[in-house]
C-alpha cells in the first residue's frame, strides 16, 4: 500500500474570472490528485514581480498517494487543461491559473525539475497568509519555523486583503449553496432532459412542470385565437400550485433543487398568445401570484435556433405539437431574451446549445456544468 502524503498547494489567478479559475483548479486537483482536506480563504494582492492585474490567491491541503514528481506532472497537466501556457525565460507574466507545490509532507526535495519546500514561499506574504489559515503550525523543514512565524518575519509588505469569497472542495458543496436552479428554454430545447441529468448527477430535488393532461393544449394548437386565454389561465393556475407545492417542501436529503421551468414563463407565453385586453387582465393575476413564489438563484435559458427546435419537436412525436410553426417558436425565443434583458439583477445565464449535445457528449455536458458553476460564483 502506497504511503499517503499531505501536501500543500498555492493557487493564484489574475486573468479572466479569477474566482472561477481558482474554483475550477480546486475541482480538477481533487479529481486528479486526491482528497482535499482544507481550503483557505480567498485573498487579493497586487501582481508580484511584474505589472499586471491584481491576483486572487488561496492555499489548500490534500492527501495524495503520488510521488512528488508525479504531483508536479499533474499540477502542470491541470494548468494546461485550464489553458495556462508556461513560458520560460521571459520572467513573470499574467496567467489565468498558477499552481505551486509548497510542501510535500515534510520532505526536502531538490531535483532539476522540482524544489520542495518551495524556495520562495517564505518571501511571499500572499502565500503565507492563506497558508496560515490552514496550516499555522506546520514547520518549514529547512527554516525550522512554523507558518505563523514565517508570516511575522516576512519582509514582503505588499497589500493583501481577504475577500468574502469561498472555494469548495466539490461541485456538490458548491451547488448546495444554491436553493433553486431553474432551467428554461423554448419548446423542444431539452430543458427537462438537462434538469433530470443534473438532479441525478448532483443529488438535487427535481421539480418538473406537469402539463401533459391540460385539456386546452391540443385545442390551442388547432385554434390559437379561441383557446389562448383559457389555456394560459389554466397553465398559470397549475404552475402556481405546482411550483409553490414543490419548492416549499424542502428535502433534507438533497443538496438543492433544479426545475425545468420558472413560473415567469407564463407571462412570456401569454404576451405572445393573448390579445391586448386579455393580456392586461392576465398580467394582474400573474403579478399577484408571482410575489408569492420562490425565485431561482440561477436562471438558465437554453437557446436553440428554430430549425433545430422543429427537428427536436418532430423527433419526440407529440401529436399536438406537430402543428407548431417556425414563427411561433421565434416569438417565444424573443420573449425569453427580452425577459432576461429586463431582469439584470437576477443571476441569468444564456447557453447556446445549437452545437452541443449534452446527452451523448460528456464534454458538452461538462461545459454546461462549468458555466453554471461559474455563474454561481459571480457576484
Description:
By secondary structure, the protein is an alpha/beta fold. It has two domains: 158 residues, Alpha-Beta Plaits (2-Layer Sandwich), CATH 3.30.70.560; 206 residues, P-loop containing nucleotide triphosphate hydrolases (Rossmann fold), CATH 3.40.50. The chain contains 13 helices and 13 strands. Strands 1, 2, 3, 4, 5 and 8 form a six-stranded antiparallel β-sheet that branches. Strands 10-11-9-12-13 form a five-stranded parallel β-sheet, sandwiched between helices. A hairpin with a 4-residue loop joins strand 6 and strand 7. Helix 8 runs antiparallel to helix 9. The longest helix has 25 residues. The protein is elongated and about 85 Å long. It starts with a strand and ends with a helix.
CATH superfamily of the largest domain: P-loop containing nucleotide triphosphate hydrolases
Query: What is the element string, with H for helices and E for strands?
Result: EHEEEHEEEHHEHEHEHHEHHEHHEH
From the N-terminal CA to the C-terminal CA, the straight-line distance is 45 Å
* Unreliable segments of 5+ consecutive residues: none
Query: What's the architecture of the largest domain in CATH terms?
Result: 3-Layer(aba) Sandwich
Number of domains as seen in the coordinates: 2
Specify the number of helices. 13
What is the CATH C-level name of the largest domain?
Alpha Beta
Amino acid at each position: 500500500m502506497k504511503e499517503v502524503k499531505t501536501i500543500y498547494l498555492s493557487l493564484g489567478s489574475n486573468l479572466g474570472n479569477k474566482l472561477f479559475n481558482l474554483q475550477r483548479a480546486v475541482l480538477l486537483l481533487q479529481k486528479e490528485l486526491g482528497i482535499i482536506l482544507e481550503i483557505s480563504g480567498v485573498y487579493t494582492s497586487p501582481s508580484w514581480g511584474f505589472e499586471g492585474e491584481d491576483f486572487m490567491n488561496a492555499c489548500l491541503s490534500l492527501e495524495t498517494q503520488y510521488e512528488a514528481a508525479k504531483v508536479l506532472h499533474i499540477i502542470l497537466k491541470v494548468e494546461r487543461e485550464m489553458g495556462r501556457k508556461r513560458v520560460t525565460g521571459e520572467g513573470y507574466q499574467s496567467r489565468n491559473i498558477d499552481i505551486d507545490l509548497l510542501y510535500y509532507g515534510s520532505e526536502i526535495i531538490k531535483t532539476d525539475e522540482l524544489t520542495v519546500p518551495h524556495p520562495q514561499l517564505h518571501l511571499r506574504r500572499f502565500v503565507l497568509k492563506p497558508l496560515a489559515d490552514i496550516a499555522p503550525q506546520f514547520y518549514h523543514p529547512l527554516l525550522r519555523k512554523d507558518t505563523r512565524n514565517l508570516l511575522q518575519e516576512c519582509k514582503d509588505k505588499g497589500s493583501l486583503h481577504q475577500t468574502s469569497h469561498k472555494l469548495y472542495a466539490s461541485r456538490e458543496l458548491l451547488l448546495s449553496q444554491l436553493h433553486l436552479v431553474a432551467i428554461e428554454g423554448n419548446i423542444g430545447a431539452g430543458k427537462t432532459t438537462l434538469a433530470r441529468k443534473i438532479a441525478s448527477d448532483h443529488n438535487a430535488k427535481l421539480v418538473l412542470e406537469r402539463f401533459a393532461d391540460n385539456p386546452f393544449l391540443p385545442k390551442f394548437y388547432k385554434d390559437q385565437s379561441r383557446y389562448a386565454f383559457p389555456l394560459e389561465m389554466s397553465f398559470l393556475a397549475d404552475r402556481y400550485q405546482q411550483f409553490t407545492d414543490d419548492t416549499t417542501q424542502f428535502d433534507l436529503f438533497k443538496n438543492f433543487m433544479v426545475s425545468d421551468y420558472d413560473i415567469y414563463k407564463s407571462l412570456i407565453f401569454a404576451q405572445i398568445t393573448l390579445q391586448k385586453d386579455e393580456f392586461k387582465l392576465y398580467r394582474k393575476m400573474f403579478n399577484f401570484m408571482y410575489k408569492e413564489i420562490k425565485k431561482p438563484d440561477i436562471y438558465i435559458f437554453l437557446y436553440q435556433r428554430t430549425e433545430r427546435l422543429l427537428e427536436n419537436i418532430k423527433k419526440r412525436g407529440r401529436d399536438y405539437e406537430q402543428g407548431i410553426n417556425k414563427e411561433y417558436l421565434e416569438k417565444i425565443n424573443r420573449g425569453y431574451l427580452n425577459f432576461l434583458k429586463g431582469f439584470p439583477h437576477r443571476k441569468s445565464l444564456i447557453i447556446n446549445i445549437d452545437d452541443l449535445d449534452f446527452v451523448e457528449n460528456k464534454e458538452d455536458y461538462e461545459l454546461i456544468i462549468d458555466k453554471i458553476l461559474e455563474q454561481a460564483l459571480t457576484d
